[in-house]
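Table S5 (text form). Sequence records supplied for joint modeling of the two-component complex.
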Amino acid sequence: MLPSLVRRAAGGLAVLAGVITLTFFLLRLAPGDPAERLLGPTATQEQLAAQRHAFGLDRPLAVQYGVWVARFARGDWGTSIATGRPVRSMLATAWPATVELVGISLLLSYLLGIGVGIVQATSGRSVDTALSVTTVTLFAMPGYWLGLMLVMVFTYWARLLPSFGSRGFDADFLPPAARLADALRHLALPLATLTLIGIGGTARFVRGAMRDVQHAPFVTVARAKGISGHRVTLHHVFRNALVPVVTLLGLSLPALFSGAVFIEAIFAWPGVGRILVEAVQARDYPVVMAATGVSALLVVLGNLLADVLATWVDPRLRTGAAA
Amino acid sequence: MSRLAADGRARFGAVLLALALAAAVLAPIVTTIGPTVQRDVVATRFLPPMAHDAHGVLHPLGTDRLGRDVWSRLAYGARISLGVGSLAVLISTLLGVLVGTVAGVWQGRAGAALLAFTDFALALPRVVLLLLLAALWRPSATLVVIVLGVTGWMSVARLVHGEARLAVAQPFADGARALGASRFRLLLRHVLPNALTPAIVAAALGFGNAILLEAGLSFLGVGVQPPTPSWGSMIASGRDTLVNAPWVAAAPGIALVLVVVASTLLGDALHEALDPARSGERPATRGA
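The corresponding structure-token record, covering 611 residues in total, follows.
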């Protein structure tokens, strides 16, 4: 198991390096640079040249790339061109917010999605059809639109839940219990949006995976031995359907992060996605690079975690020979 | 095919997609007024659905804050959504089939390298790439098509590669090789026909995803640019008027959900009709 894990980790590092390199050259290839954005349309050629020199943008691309990688590796991520804040401190506050949102949503959508999928695979046709209609609709829903509709209902009509940011303006002055309640109220809508959509995909997948195993010979044997229906469902069908489901966990992380980009934009959630969207529009090179790097890193780590889980769930993967 | 016609999901999906296509093609006929026509803004803005304005024009889905007809924008926006979605899926399917079959026929180093590249591309955060590409160049429908096309081929390549490897190992492929068929001929005449099934299924499922992503990019302002109506930018503009005119954001969202549900159901049904043994393998992840 260990060698394969090391190989996976090396692959993850390669992905990370690839993302960073790709981002670097895409940014440089695209028209428009931060000097133009910073100085505005009235800037003279001399001013632009001086500003580009100050940013080091007049050096050969390969040199810029080398300098950037060396600095990034040393932990010097530069300062944001648009806000003047150190990039590291911007991301240091942002990534926990994204991990909080994505992590809880992943957990909830898996638990609920697996539950719905099991119910669908074991119940009669009418229940299955009704749930299928629900899950395929959720699966088809754009996150930003579902988010808006929830805002319309819960913020504007019912006036129950906030839809902006991760905490109230007075959060610092609240006692601990009230502060927690405030944080949960702010989390509710973005989390519900991301989770509802996740349930759709997971339930569809679990239902399919269980249907595939349901008629396997070992299930028939288990039933023939007189094992109760529930036990067969949980210990024989679901246990075997769990392997593709856990593999899916790793695959769904990039999609979940992608979804989070839109959700963060809608709810002004102070995460990596929102920083990325703003930085891309402002051509804020240092921030774009670091935010891309951090989101790629989170995805790579999530995939590694899913690999570990898959080996834990499926003993056949543990021998090492099978890898 | 008859199995497909007997499948309720397939019929439902096909009918819905046909309706959306008809609305897009016949947009000038089925609407009462152009999608960008603005008259007296104060008198015609925020009209609720089924209202007549001062000029006696019916607005079946109401008007937005500039007094533009929502139904008309929806119908013309369908041209962008369906057009961009299908062109993007065409590009990604062609790329995926190319990479998948080549990697299946030229096994060994070339194939392994292609597969490694596919896995690498699959691990990239797609929306981050999309955002970068779409925001860095001047936004346009063409750019969105290209960007969605070149970031969506990997899952097709994976599926097609699996099928191509199976085909290459079949006796008929051995026979072709024994008769002196070149690898290129093997790919074209023996592998490609067998690999088309997963490609078609992946295309049907990818279509909905492409439409969602196009709308997402337009929603963030880096896709199709105003005043051209696009479902994503319509949702974005309805965002500011959720309180007094919820129909502006609701209508394009419902249209999006219906079209994506239709293509997903059609894809599921196709999958089971073409390949009943593997009905369970469904993509459960998507972008927006």
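Note: The mean pLDDT of chain A is 82.
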